[in-house]
Write a structure and sequence with these properties.
The complex is a heterodimer of chains A (159) and B (295).
Chain A: H1 9-24, E1 39-41, E2 49-52, E3 58-65, H2 72-85, E4 89-98, E5 101-112, E6 115-125, E7 129-138, H3 139-153
Antiparallel strand pairs in A: 1-2, 2-3, 3-7, 4-5, 5-6, 6-7
Chain B: H1 3-21, E1 30-33, H2 44-47, H3 87-94, H4 99-105, E2 110-120, H5 125-138, E3 142-146, E4 150-156, H6 160-168, E5 172-182, H7 184-210, H8 214-246, E6 247-256, H9 259-263, H10 287-290
Parallel strand pairs in B: 2-6
Antiparallel strand pairs in B: 1-5, 2-5, 3-4, 4-6
Helix pairs in contact in B: 1-7, 1-8, 3-7, 7-8
Classes of the chains: A alpha+beta (159), B alpha+beta (295).
Chain lengths: 159, 295
């Protein structure tokens, strides 16, 4: 008579610990479907996902702990205050949605090297995480990609 | 045989023109003055809770429930296409049984006019006027008129705010006012009347082709001339509205900068004091870090 294979107790313990560590470190997915014509690149420091267009428009996703614990109004307000202090000109704030999750999209302009740049940051808040989708680039190049970027933001996947 | 339809059409056309003779609707259903500050609140006039494509709207042609607006083509000033794209269809809807819902969905046609008074060194008046001429050309506009101390610029509505900001850099702002005139109702009413007149004109032309005697011909031609006159008048008004919505008007007056009038300028209050939150990752936000692909 055959018995079902069983894991050794040590292996089982390692698996449980690994799963626990992954959960504690918040190491879960946070990415968007790359916009049409963009290439996915190494996320780099602080980002979970990054993609770039051939001429340098970038979209990137960041996932941080919801600490201090705040709601969407708190985090969108905190981001807005910070960016305005840094000299960003606020253009618009609009409600956005990604896979049923409500978020806020803040749009700004800023001069860099004598050229106007566009910068959007869309923020989504869960009980444990704050997820931002940043998109930016030279205004002229960015304007061409804005529709594709909007579609990409709507695909945000938090795993 | 032709008499009865002829009399009916003539009666109808007289009524249509009669309605027209009552004059155009009031020039605006809504006028307001708006402060052009940088805060979101200032844009609520035309754009809060904008739909996904609101970004593509020019300042002069904004959707009703949406704040600001750079992008879609303003209504064409061409008499051949007196209504903006889709506007003809919307005009039809307005005349249907559910006008309120339809009106909510139609685009707003807004005419922006700004008045700006700048304090400038008297010796720099000419240079300032030259700079404004250059500025209007750079922004895709033109100079409507100017003299030694005043200038009127027409700039694309999508670049209205940018134009004001750039103009303000040319001197010390002593006063500034911006007026937004919503001409949506008038524009769509004109469109509806235009369609009605065009239908009348077609019927008159058919009658003219079938006229049996000189008396009928003369009567029909008389009515036709009146209808054509009214069509031309409406076309002209629609073209005027469309062009003023597509191009905003900025009147600038230059005043000599003297010690006495400089004292009148009250400096704006400093922006509200906000305290940076002790959240490290917030400092990593921004376009600089985002575009630094090597990190």
């Amino acid at each position: 008579m055959h018995s079902l294979p069983t894991c050794k107790p040590t292996l089982r313990l390692v698996a449980v610990l690994a799963a626990g560590l992954l959960t504690l470190s918040g190491c879960t997915t946070a990415r968007v479907g790359p916009p049409h014509g963009f290439a996915v690149i190494e996320p780099g420091e602080g980002y979970r996902f990054r993609a770039v267009s051939p001429d340098g428009v970038v979209v990137a996703v960041r996932r941080e702990a919801n600490d201090p614990k705040g709601d969407l109004a708190f985090w969108s307000g905190a981001l807005d205050a910070k960016l305005r202090r840094d000299g960003y000109r606020a253009l618009e704030a609009r409600d956005v949605e990604a896979k049923g999750m409500k978020g806020k999209q803040l749009r700004y302009a800023i001069d860099r090297g004598g050229r106007e740049h566009s910068y959007w940051v869309s923020v989504f808040v869960t009980p444990t995480a704050v997820v931002t989708v940043e998109a930016g680039g030279d205004h002229e190049l960015f304007a061409r990609e804005s529709e594709a970027l909007l579609r990409a933001i709507a695909t945000l996947d938090l795993g | 045989m032709l008499r009865r339809p002829l009399v009916l059409v003539l009666l109808a056309s007289t009524l249509v023109i009669g309605c027209g003779a009552a004059g155009l609707p009031p020039p605006s259903s809504f006028e307001s003055r708006i402060a052009m500050d940088e805060a979101y609140g200032s844009r609520k006039l035309v754009a809060d809770a904008a739909p996904a494509d609101a970004e593509a709207m020019p300042v002069g042609l904004a959707r009703p429930a949406a704040p600001m607006a750079p992008g879609a083509a303003p209504p064409s000033p061409s008499p051949a296409r007196p209504l903006p794209q889709g506007a003809a269809a919307k005009g039809k809807q307005v005349s249907s049984d559910k006008p309120q819902a339809e009106e909510e969905s139609k685009e707003h046609i807004i005419i922006y006019t700004a008045n700006l008074a700048l304090l400038v060194e008297p010796a720099s008046f000419a240079a300032s006027i030259d700079a404004m001429v250059d500025l209007s050309a750079r922004l895709g506009g033109f100079v409507a008129r100017h003299d030694d101390r005043t200038i009127t610029l027409r700039v694309p509505s999508a670049r209205f705010r940018e134009s004001l900001r750039d103009l303000e850099k040319l001197g010390d702002v002593q006063s500034r006012s911006v007026e937004a005139q919503d001409v949506t109702e008038e524009y769509f009413d004109l469109g509806i009347r235009m369609k009605s007149l065009q239908a009348t004109r077609r019927r008159l032309e058919e009658l003219l082709a079938r006229a049996a005697n000189i008396n009928d011909v003369l009567q029909v031609e008389e009515q036709l001339a009146r209808v054509n006159g009214e069509v031309d008048r409406i076309e002209g008004r629609m073209r005027f509205l469309a062009s003023h919505a597509a191009l905003s008007t900025i009147h600038v007056s230059l005043l000599p900068r003297t010690a006495s009038n400089l004292q009148k300028i009250v400096p704006p209050p400093p922006p509200p004091r906000t305290i940076p939150l002790p959240i490290r990752w917030l400092s990593a936000l921004g376009v600089d870090r985002l575009l630094e692909l090597s990190r």
